[in-house]
Amino acid sequence: MARFCIQCGAALAPDERFCGECGKAVAPHTPSGLPVAPGAPDPPPQRMEPTPFNSSVIARPMPDSRRRQKVLRGGLVVLIPLLGILLVWGYQMQQKQYQVSDAELFAIIDPNNKIGYIDNTGKIIITPQFDAADLFYEGLAAVHVDGQWGYIDQSGKIIINPQFDRGGEFSEGLAAVRTANHWGYIDTSGRIAIKPQFDDPGSTPGIKARLRLPISFSKGRALTQSGNKMGFIDKSGRYVINPQFDSALPFSEGLAAVKIGDRWGYIDDSGKIAINPQFTHAYEFAGGLAAVNNGRGQWGYIDKTGKFAIEPQFDAARWFSAGLAAVAIGVGIEGKWGYINSAGKIVIHPQFHAAEEFSEGLAATAIAQSRPGTSTQTPLWGYIGKSGTYVINPQFTMEAFRFSGGLASVSMAKFHHYGPGSYSASTERWGYIDKHGKYVWTTQ
Predict the structure, then answer these.
(1) Beta strands 182-187 and 174-179, pairing class
(2) Contact by Cβ (8 Å): 45, 418
């Protein structure tokens, strides 16, 4: 079964423990690399060497396919072992060009591994019935029924009959769909607007997927892959910036990060190089600044002229959100995460072993805890306010995602020990909490 990073969508090797693109730790819980859904039987024992808790990877440096508030930026996660599909309700970043989910409904999973939807009070609005499901965008959500993907409205009614191998979210009236191993776009009636012709990410030898392409339209453009290069199309399906980049990220604040050879730079909306390729890593602009790596292991922030506004000095960095950005000082188990403002001043002292961006006034951060009987450290997640103090104390042992629509998805792990330094884990409890840390819906 194919494996993908649940943070950035990059393809993973069968034995890969950490994502080579965004650095997220790959859950060693099951052969598929995804946690087991609540209520599912325990996976067969997987013996492994203890892995030190590494703050530089657990903190998930800037995901490439981040979207605005909606999720996946925090948010909500649905795990379906049958299909190995992770649905994220939250990678939702704060860029205007990224799609925002219709946050009135939140996906849930029942004991039979069927997906339904609740509102923000925990009331079931759409009875669990789907094998897999995405969030709502522009009033429609992609759902998986009898091996195919279609779309429902917020009453649960099928609007576009299941007929696709995969379906993405709607944005600017179009949604990416896959048939016969190629991607195209449909409109809200289900009519093919752009015929399937674009390649799956990572399908070409030598290309490692950083995004699940094609992605949503933003300001009339979408990033797609053709052969071993990436470019941008308009709503007619015509390339407005020809496939020529070894990798690329969506446009953000008028610029898009592109990779040429082994270096990243930025182009403007005409496709002209605006900032020369010179960085080993580069992320989208947010608040006029973009986190980049200078090639010597240090992260800083550039402005839109390519000049460093915050000099490279951090061992890892994330994007700005609500005026703050998480940065790491130190690497490995000794590394600590804190927050800076747009002037580069540290406003929350580095003290966390992992950190996410702020959303709706709170940010998920983690402290390290030792597993009983082992030397291995694992994260314990909670939520801080902008003062840096915990509003919701660290207590979540598997994941804690960003708040969206007043709720955040959290999960607890059940650890299985097989001897000194050897263990695996599965999801014991998963649900949504409000900003007081109270569950509004949970599997238990």
Answers:
(1) antiparallel
(2) yes
Query: Do the beta carbons of residue 292 and residue 282 sit within 8 Å?
Result: yes
CA distances from 112 to 37, 128, 150, 410 (A): 10, 9, 21, 20
- For 233-280, how does the pLDDT look when each residue is reduced to its tens digit (9 = 90+)? 999 999 999 999 999 999 999 999 999 999 999 999 999 999 999 999
- The whole-angstrom separation of Cα 298 and Cα 11 is 26
Which structure tokens are listed for 33?
């690399």
Helices H / strands E in the chain, number of each = 1, 41
Which pLDDT score, from 0 to 100, does residue 432 have?
Answer: 97
Model-level pTM?
Answer: 0.77
- Which residues make beta-bridge pairs with 121? none
Name the fold adopted by 256-283+285-318. Answer: Thrombin, subunit H (2.40.10)
Which helix (H) or strand (E) is 55 found in, with range?
Answer: helix 55-58
pLDDT (tens digit per residue) in 317-346: 999 999 999 999 998 777 899 999 999 999
Residue with tokens 């859950």: 27
Closest by CA position to 203, among listed 218, 183, 174, 222: 183
The token duo for 279 is 């960085």
Percentage of the chain lying above the pLDDT 70 cut: 69
By the 8 A CB rule, do 10 and 21 touch? Answer: yes
CA-to-CA dists, residue 274 to 256, 262, 270, 306, angstroms: 9, 17, 10, 8
Instruction: Find all residues with CB under 8 Å of 157, minimum gap 6, and list them.
Output: none
Which of the 8 DSSP states describes residue 218? B
